[in-house]
Structures are given as C-alpha cells and as structure tokens.
Design a protein that fits this description.
22% of the residues lie in helices and 36% in strands.
Amino acid sequence: KINKYKEGKIMSKKVLLAGESWMSNTTHTKGFDSFFTGVYETGETRLVEALEANGYDVTFLPNHLAGEKFPFSLEELKEYDCIILSDIGANTLLLPAVTFSKSVKMPNRTKVIRDYVLDGGSLLMIGGYLTFSGVDAKGKWHDTAVQDVLPVEILTVDDRMEHCEGVKPVTIKEHKALQGVGSDWPEVLGYNKTVAKPEADVVATIEGDPFIAFGEYGKGRSAVFTTDCAPHWAPPEFCEWEDYNNVWAGIVDWLTE
C-alpha cells in the first residue's frame, strides 16, 4: 500500500472520501407547544478506520464541505490515489455556491472525476440514499460524466431496494481484491439496484444484481459497492464482521495497484 517516495521517506497512498454526513431536524410537539432540535452526524468512522488500519492516508470531506472544497481541477484531484464517493449526490458537485447564487461558470467536477480516472486515477462509489440514483432519484449520477467510468449503469428512477428482512450478498467468482475474504457474507438491509455494463467484472451479487463490480477505463480503474459502508443498510453484524476491513483494503488495493 506504499507508492510514493518523498525526500527519502515512504509515503502512504492518499484517499479522498467525500460524503457520509447529514444534518437532521426534529419537531417535538407536546400538546399546544412544539420545539425544534437539530443534530449533525457522520457515517465515515468504520470505513476510515478500516483503510487507515491498512496503511492508507484518508482525507474525509463531509457533504456540507464538499460543495466548495472538493477539487475543481485535475491537478488537485491527482494528489489522491483514490476517490471514494459515498452517500453524496451529484448536485453537491454540480452546483457550486457561486454558480447557484450568482450564475458564475465553474468547472464541472463530474467531468474532472471522469478525466482523473481516464488519466490513471481510481474511483469507488459506495451505495446509499444519495449515491447511484438514490432516494427519489435525487442522487442523479446517471446523467453525469462519472457514469462513463463506472462498471454499472445507474438507473434513472429511485433505485433503492429496501430489505428490512435482510438479504445476503453472494460471491460469484474469485478476484484478487477479495482474496482472503470469506464467502459467507453477513446480511444487509438494502442496496442500490444497478445494471452491469458489458465490460464489468462482477464478482459479487445481491438478489441477482451487482454488489461488487470492477472496471478499467483509460489508464485507471473503478469499482462499485452497492450497499452502505455503515448503518442503516449495513447493520452492526456487517460492520463488525471479521472481514469488514479486508473487504475495503482489498478493493482499494486493487484500484490503486
């Protein structure tokens, strides 16, 4: 997991994780009166710990900062060995504040991500309510340039497959990224439904749909993991699974190989 030397020092591979945060507002009504509470939460902890435990240097960019802080240029993006998009909608990158409020032209960062992959970078999209198509199709990744460098076709409708009863992923073929990972996956509570592209290397399915798939585009690589990396779709038994860290390390190892 080491790829850079600087001034004689070995440097860890760098990962940029964008998304995995949300703000919730609750109205409490007690008879005649009501009041409001708000909370800010993040879901990156387990994923970041898994990657850092395997030698990666992870920069976490939560949703409320990604709109303005996610790199606007290929040169900035190439500072990272892998980009992970997890539960972040395309609009967060397509609508910078100055564009939305003042009609100022800015670089299309979905095109920057595509060019980054084609030029040798690596991309991982993780499932959630705002990745792939997502809830009410508000993820909106289908009609972006990112779709060009993913191994699956994103739906244009709400793609959530909710399974409160639990469904089990199935490994269908061996792949270097999953070496050492057991085939008995814990159940998950839902996933984003996608359609594998002809060139996709689908190594695990869920209910017959892609669960983990890989692809190579230009000089780079991409992968999809179509359920969540944390609750609620990934319940505690999934996040505490003995191979949880190995799955993420294996995927990112292959992407940045």
